[in-house]
Write a sequence for this structure.
């Protein structure tokens, strides 16, 4: 069985700070990590490798330094790694990204494609389903549990108030939730293997069978018009007043903040 | 000369750091307060191959180098001195002794389970009357048919009660003095092998530090490690490697204390300023950082020397001597910079200070380190 | 009232009216409200898309909340949500009626369906929007959303492709006042659903029971300290937490006093949390506690001591008696939510 896992290297957005004076995002010194949902997807693939001898390839699209996340995947036990990297792919929105990755995937054999549900920097949850659409294969998202049953994949799919147990014939794509599992650590030996024994295949523009009109900034239906850092924390307001006024004040604030 | 860690080593450090934070830290306080062996962390370390890092894959190890293993001890020590020494004693003392001196059968039977994380190792040299004077071994070992008969006791043995495989030393020929000492491999549950009390200690409280008692304990002839009469040399050369592990433990303790202190002084305000703004704080931090960095390169250098196959006893001794001094000083200063909070368990630095002290003592006291270094200088 | 499909103009603002088990998901109504504002600025029409099986009666609520026309796809294959049949229907509707904008609620259905549809019709999709506007002169459709873990707000446009699609965060847009006398054109979907290998099989449906979370991941936390005194005090806070759909937490003092379990302890020696909302009641705000919660998005503190250090980190500080304020707060919240 062949599994392809799509992973993304992301800044650890839980570590991001706003500059106290300038109000801008401080991006320097933020560690890069493997996107948590993707790591859960990779772990699911590795468990299938342990249980049924599946072959696990990992693929990522990004700048050259995204190879670090592929090394991590190899160190965890993935067999092969592919890095899609070319300046022509930069500026891609989810359409262009998913198109490019899907085109790369067509070069490989696969029964199952696993992506994370969403990345902690883009937060769109779109790329997985869009890849499936480009590949013309079914997808199931919000996967909380995953099993293989013959030539079908069986998924416990999470909704707000219920679960569906869904099955579909492979080839198929599933998007993994962080809750799917507890990913394994790398082993020290795995790390040495990842750097010394295993290989990362680099694919640049000529290697990807895709039309220009679908890649990069030009191939992206959406554009970023502008960005603003989230509003700086204003100094707090302190009030000392009657009970009813206090309650009213709190309610206003809760509504302002969309808590209510 | 490249002072940068390779990508593999950087990634390994990140692995050990993440592991220490997620798997070791939750147990650090309880380990100290209850004098409790951190089984949860150790089981996970066994599962992920941490207990066999510098040993070849052919024998079940991870196939990495000494530096990778030392990074593991360092990162874990930043969080918990106890867990770090468990790893160090198992790897540098027990496993390495068998790796260097064992026959192929012994490696297969005893080393493999150690490095695959199935069993824990321990190294038993010290006796009530034989500490620094390690040659004064009283444990007697008599040849009896196809067995050895052992009588005697060992004290202060790390991983004492929890280990499965012990590398121990005894006198096979009292008349030959130092050349009458031999090394043995002894398994737990061997009849005649039992444990005395385990010590309650100033620091590394979760480490199982126990007395081993041999009362007509019989082991197979094949459990002799190395040649008869060569035990003292085996002990000394094994300890050379062990010293690098302890140096890494001390380095980690100092770094962990410094990290906590830097965080604290930025947050703690007195007289309307964070105390980080005061020059005393700044100067003390600067000095500590410099000492730690100097220590770091002594430790890593010892690793590289060991792996190169060249003699490394002096480098290891210098690393341990410096690191243990720095650990004691830095942790003490860190407590002081915390003021009253430094005395409080919840702020961790007092534990690190108590943990640090033993690094100046075990696996060869600082005085012994000076003997080794000056011995080399003056030959 | 049914009419021929000339009633659906091109360049309309479409809203996917999500329904589950014959109940319209609240976000759909919020979207109708927003669609109305957008349609007004564009001089176009608000159209709801209603998919399901035997759901015709739901057109009434959609109409009263702002749908001016409704495309109704009522079909046995649409009984339970599945990606492929729903995608086929919506894609065909889009091809047929050429809307300017299509909005989906950012629910687990919306965030599954919208990208598949966007892929099928080859257009731009913006996820999890918290704000949608039509720019004054240019008439550009501006979709604003949090990115980078919520630390940035990005404004996205879809210059050429149509329709511009967006999923919208629930609880952000405002639904209109319902108008029971409103009337909408209802148009039956006249395309086809082709069963193919992309169809999933629903083997089972399991309803969730509300299970305990780890407070680590809670988005809303109500925490109590020594100032809550006793179990009645914490019961009150549990009530407040329930009313907000949040979790109860505690400072170390309360844990040491045996009022709460250690698993709920926030602080240096407990858990570090970074919820959207942290309400600290009767907590003085010692440095050990702050270490566990000062990264919260929004902090409300209620304490009778005006000099309590918690007020230094609180966005909203209320000096007062939590035992008096919290019960009234719970009432007000429950009223608001109903």
């Amino acid at each position: 069985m062949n599994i392809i896992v799509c992973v993304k290297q992301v800044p650890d957005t839980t570590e991001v700070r706003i500059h106290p004076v300038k109000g801008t995002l401080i991006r320097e010194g933020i560690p890069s990590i493997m996107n948590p949902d993707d790591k859960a997807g990779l772990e699911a693939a590795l468990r299938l490798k342990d249980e049924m001898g599946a072959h696990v390839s990992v693929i990522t699209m990004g700048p050259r330094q995204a190879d670090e996340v592929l090394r991590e995947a190899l160190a965890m036990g993935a067999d092969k790694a592919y890095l899609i990297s070319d300046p022509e792919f930069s500026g891609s929105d989810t359409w262009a990204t998913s198109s490019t990755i899907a085109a790369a995937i067509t070069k490989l054999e696969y029964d199952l494609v696993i992506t994370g549900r969403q990345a902690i920097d883009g937060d769109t949850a779109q790329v997985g389903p869009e890849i499936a659409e480009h590949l013309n294969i079914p997808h199931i998202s919000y996967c909380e549990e995953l099993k293989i049953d013959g030539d079908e994949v069986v998924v416990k799919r999470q909704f707000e108030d219920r679960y569906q147990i869904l099955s579909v014939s492979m080839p198929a794509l599933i998007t993994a939730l962080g809750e799917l599992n507890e990913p394994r650590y790398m082993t020290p030996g795995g790390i040495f293997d990842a750097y010394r024994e295993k290989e990362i295949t680099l694919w640049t523009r000529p290697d990807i069978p895709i039309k220009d009109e679908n890649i990069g900034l030009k191939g992206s239906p959406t554009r970023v018009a502008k960005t603003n850092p989230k509003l700086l924390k204003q100094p707090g307001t302190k009030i000392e007043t009657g009970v009813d006024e206090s309650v009213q004040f709190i309610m206003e604030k809760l509504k302002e903040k969309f808590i209510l | 000369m490249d002072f940068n860690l390779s990508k593999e080593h950087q990634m390994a450090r990140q692995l050990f750091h993440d592991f220490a934070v997620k798997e070791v830290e939750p147990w650090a306080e309880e380990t100290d307060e209850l004098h409790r062996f951190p089984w949860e962390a150790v089981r996970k370390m066994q599962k992920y191959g941490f207990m066999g890092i510098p040993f070849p894959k052919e024998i079940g190890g991870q196939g990495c180098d000494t530096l990778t293993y030392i990074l593991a001890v360092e990162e874990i020590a930043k969080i918990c001195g106890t867990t770090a020494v468990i790893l160090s004693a198992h790897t540098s003392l027990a496993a390495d002794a068998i790796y260097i001196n064992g026959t192929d059968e012994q490696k297969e039977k005893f080393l493999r389970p150690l490095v695959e994380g199935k069993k824990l190792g321990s190294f038993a040299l010290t006796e009530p009357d034989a500490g620094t004077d390690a040659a004064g071994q009283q444990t007697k070992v008599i040849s009896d048919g196809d067995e050895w008969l052992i009588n005697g006791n060992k004290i202060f043995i790390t991983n004492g009660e929890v280990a499965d495989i012990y590398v121990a030393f005894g006198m096979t020929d009292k008349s030959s003095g130092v050349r009458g000492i031999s090394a043995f491999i002894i398994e737990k549950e061997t009849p005649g092998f039992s444990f005395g009390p385990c010590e309650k200690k100033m620091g590394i409280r979760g480490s199982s530090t126990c007395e081993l008692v041999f009362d007509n304990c019989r082991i197979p002839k094949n459990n002799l490690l190395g040649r008869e009469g060569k035990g003292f040399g085996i002990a000394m050369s094994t300890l050379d490697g062990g010293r690098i592990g302890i140096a890494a433990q001390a380095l980690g303790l100092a770094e962990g204390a410094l990290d906590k202190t830097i965080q604290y002084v930025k947050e703690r305000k007195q007289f309307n300023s964070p105390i980080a703004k005061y020059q005393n704080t700044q100067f003390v931090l600067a000095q500590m950082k410099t000492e730690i960095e100097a220590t770091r390169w002594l430790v890593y250098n010892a690793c590289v020397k060991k792996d190169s196959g060249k003699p490394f006893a002096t480098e290891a001794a210098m690393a341990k001597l410096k690191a243990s001094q720095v650990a004691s000083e830095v942790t003490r200063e860190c407590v002081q910079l915390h003021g009253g909070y430094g005395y409080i368990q919840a702020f961790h630095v007092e534990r690190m200070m108590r943990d640090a002290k033993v690094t100046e003592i075990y696996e060869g006291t600082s005085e012994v380190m000076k003997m080794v270094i000056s011995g080399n200088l003056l030959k | 009232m049914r009419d021929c499909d000339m009633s659906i103009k091109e360049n309309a603002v479409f809203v996917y009216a999500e329904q589950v088990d014959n109940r319209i998901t609240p976000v759909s109504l919020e979207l109708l409200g927003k669609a109305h504002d957008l349609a007004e600025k564009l001089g176009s029409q608000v159209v709801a898309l209603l998919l399901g099986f035997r759901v015709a009666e739901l057109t009434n609520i959609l109409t009263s909340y702002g749908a001016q026309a409704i495309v109704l796809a009522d079909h046995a294959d649409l009984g339970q949500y599945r990606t492929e049949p729903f995608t086929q229907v919506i894609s065909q509707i889009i091809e047929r009626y050429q809307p300017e904008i299509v909005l989906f609620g950012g629910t687990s259905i919306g965030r599954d369906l919208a990208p598949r549809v966007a892929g099928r019709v080859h257009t731009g999709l913006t996820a999890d929007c918290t704000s949608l506007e039509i720019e004054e002169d240019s008439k550009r459709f501006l979709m604003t959303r949090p990115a980078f873990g919520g630390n940035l707000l990005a404004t996205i446009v879809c210059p050429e492709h149509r329709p511009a699609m967006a999923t919208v965060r629930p609880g952000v847009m405002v639904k209109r006042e319902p108008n029971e006398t409103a009337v909408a054109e209802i148009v039956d979907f006249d395309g086809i659903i082709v069963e193919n290998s992309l169809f999933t099989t629903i083997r089972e449906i399991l309803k969730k029971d509300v299970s305990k979370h780890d407070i680590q991941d809670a988005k809303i936390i109500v925490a109590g300290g020594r100032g809550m005194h006793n179990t009645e005090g914490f019961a009150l806070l549990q009530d407040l937490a329930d009313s907000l759909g949040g979790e109860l937490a505690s400072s170390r003092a309360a844990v040491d006093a045996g009022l709460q379990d250690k698993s709920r302890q926030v602080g240096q020696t407990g858990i570090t949390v970074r919820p959207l909302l942290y309400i600290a009641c009767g907590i003085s705000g010692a440095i050990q506690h702050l270490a566990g919660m000062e990264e919260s998005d929004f902090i409300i503190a209620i304490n009778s001591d005006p000099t309590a250090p918690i007020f230094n980190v609180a966005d909203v500080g209320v000096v007062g008696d939590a035992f008096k304020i919290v019960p009234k707060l719970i009432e007000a919240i429950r009223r608001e939510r109903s």
